[in-house]
Amino acid sequence: MHLDPILLLVQGLNGVQLGVMLFLMASGLTLIFGVMNLLNLAHGSMYMMGAYLAASLQQRTGSFLLALVLALPATFLIGMIIEAVAMRRLYDRDHLDQVLVTFGFILCFNELVCILWGPQALFMALPDGLSGYVILLPGVIYPSYRLMIIGSGLLVAVLLYLLVMKTRLGMLIRAGASHREMVGSLGVNIKLLYTLLFGIGSALAGLAGMLAGPILSIESGMGDPVLILALVVIVIGGLGSIRGALLASIMVGVADTFGRILLPPALASMVIYLLMAAILFWRPKGLFSANG
Amino acid sequence: MDNFRHFDLRSAALFLLLAVLAVIPLFGDIFYTRLMTRIMIYAMAALSLDLILGYGGMVSLGHAAFLGVGAYTVGILSLWGVQSAFLSWPLAMLVSMLMALVIGAISLRVSGVSFIMITLAFAQMLYYCFISLKGYGGSDGMTLPVRSSLAGLLDISRHGSFYYLVLCILLLIFFAAHRLVHSRFGMVVQGIRDNERRMLALGFPAFRYKLVCFVLAAGVAGLAGALMANQNLYVGPALMHWKQSAEILVMVILGGMRSLAGPVLGAMALLIAEEALSSYTEHWMIILGPLLVIVVLFGRKGIYGMLKRSR
Predict the structure, then answer these.
(1) What are the tens digits of pLDDT across the range B164-213?
(2) For chain B, what is the domain count?
């Protein structure tokens, strides 16, 4: 096949868009892991819940934005409830127990959406005003919704950076990550802090699901493939590092997209895993390791 | 007398189990024979996972990959016209072990939670790879025309004789694994699990021991996969899906890890529970999921561990 530069540019943007979605997933995952040392496989379920909630709220209200505004606190709340019910018992357990419990939650949520919304896939309409195309350069058009995803993902990245590095809450989160007991004995309600943080992580995953809703089919188990990509991302980026997650998400998104247009299918499906293997071969701790 | 003293609840349960297993095809429906065959094959897979999980301390979330590789080896050979079990089954083990050698050599460079994620990622890689291999059925998988032939020694196209073959192989693997974990090799691997730095200081090359353990377990899983292909007369990518890996992990934990009987009991308990729940409601996962959460949060020792306590 011939490679014309316009195609490369459009595919490059598609890669960045996938990367941004992955970043929304991976940042919550890596934040929860970095601070609470918790491997949360149910993160993909929050993505799925976000998509389902947004889809049914959009149907009721007729507005994408309103659906987003209502669904976001809902996923935040679901995350906090899960943390309070089960996850907080897992911080001192080994990772194997965390895998098993969160796997149990995946089974629950996958079945729950089947019961609540039925087994057939849901579809979301593109929001009004974002269903068209944007002319980037003469002869280069790109869907405006996808451009919006890129924009909002980068916005979240900036907000997350400000939250963690510049606010009091972020300071407590960083302090709690390195010296849990010490922060607790200074009078900070560390339990509440962790619950809040888990809620934030869930809301991030939920947001990714809501944004993906109009471009994917919404079905039970839709979170699982994204979860695994997000795990690959945080392994490449370095566990616990948000900066690493951002870089690695874009890398994985672009590598996957170009793999699919340039390579035979069997090899294309392996590209990101080979990328992961190569990076781990040279840097077993990932690109940026938060915990040394 | 000495033997008599050791006759506790655990051995009683195991002997009873063995006795039941020995007579199942003689009584009852063919359905139960097939169900128990499936359970015994999963028991092999769970047992092999326990070798790396319980004894080696390596939490692999990609064990089903080796099950799938073994099954696909048999399936692809059958497509090429090779039906002999004496050729395809050992080859299934060999291919799984080679795959484990590559995956293990990369994944064992890291430990803990990264190891969990990387084994998961590699298993998904193989899953997607086989989905895109349209020549071998793609996402639909492929059906096998007949079960493997054992050169006229035994006709395993009958469910009963296949059942007894699987039972014999399971017993063989059980005793081989028993010898392995009590051998010098097994002791070293357990030592590395408990304190890798100390074992390194004693001069044991921990990486190589762990890798060999990983590869051996993959070989057993490959054999289980070969049997699975014969049981279902079908191989498909779903066999290596990560949920399959997680399910095998659940079997080990449910039965009790760091024992050989535990994974067998766990496979039995989980698959029978699934069978019973799914006949009761189509949404059986909504019961199994919370059950799993509760078992892990509050009952750590597994079935086999509880048998010991209540002696």
Answers:
(1) 999 999 999 999 999 999 999 999 999 999 999 999 999 999 999 999 99
(2) 1
Question: Mutating which of A113, A226, A273 best tests the B interface, going by the most B Cβ atoms within 10 A?
Answer: A273
* End-to-end CA gap in chain B: 18
- CB atoms < 10 A from the CB of B141, how many? 19
**Measured between alpha carbons, how far is B120 from B63 in angstroms, rounded to an integer?**
8
Q: How many CB atoms lie within 10 A of CB A264?
A: 9
Cross-chain CB nearest to A269 (options B129, B243, B293): B129
Dihedral over alpha carbons A219, A221, A222, A226 (to 10 degrees): 180
Task: List pLDDT tens digits, range A118-157.
Answer: 989 988 888 887 888 888 878 788 889 999 999 999 999 9
Closest C-alpha to B224, from B28, B91, B66: B66
Tell me the residue range of the domain where B74 lies: 29-238
Query: Among candidates A194, A183, A250, which has minimal Cα distance to A20?
Result: A250
How many angstroms away from the CA of B139 is the closest CA of chain A? 12
- Alpha helices by DSSP H, B133-195: 159-181, 184-194
Name the nearest CA neighbour of A35 among A205, A170, A224.
A170
Residue-wise pLDDT for B57-66, tens only, equals 999 999 999 9
Contacts of A108 (CB under 8 A, 6+ apart): A45, B285, B286, B289, B290, B293
Q: Please, are residues A47 and A205 in contact by the beta-carbon 8 Å criterion?
A: yes
Residues of chain B contacting residue A25, judged by C-beta atoms under 8 Å apart: none
Following DSSP, what letter does each residue of B95-119 receive, concatenated? HHHHHHHHHHHHHTTS-THHHHHHH
Residue whose tokens read 């590789």: B69
| Inter-chain touch B129–A280, beta carbons under 8 Å | no
The secondary structure of A118-154 as a DSSP string is: -SSPB--PPPTTSSSEEEEETTEEEEHHHHHHHHHHH
* A111: nearest CB among B109, B242, B283: B283
Residues A11-57 pLDDT 10s: 899 999 999 999 999 999 999 998 888 999 999 999 999 999 999 99
Instruction: Indicate which of B194, B286, B288, B301 best probes the interface with A, i.e. most A CBs within 10 Å of its own CB.
Output: B286
User: Which chain B residue has the Cα nearest residue A88?
Assistant: B297
Instruction: Name the residue of chain B whose CA is nearest to A98's CA.
Output: B296
Tell me, yes or no, if A118 comes closer than 8 A to chain B by beta carbon.
Answer: no
ipTM over 0.90: no
Of B118, B125, B293, Cβ closest to residue A101: B293
| A39 and chain B in contact, CB less than 8 A | yes
Residue B214 is assigned to a structural domain of this protein: yes
Angstrom distance (rounded) from CA A61 to CA A63: 5
Contact across the interface for B129 and A266, Cβ inside 8 Å: yes
Q: Are A107 and B283 within 8 A, CB to CB?
A: no
Cβ–Cβ gap A280/B109 under 8 Å: yes
Half-sphere exposure of B235 (CA within 13 A, CB side): 36
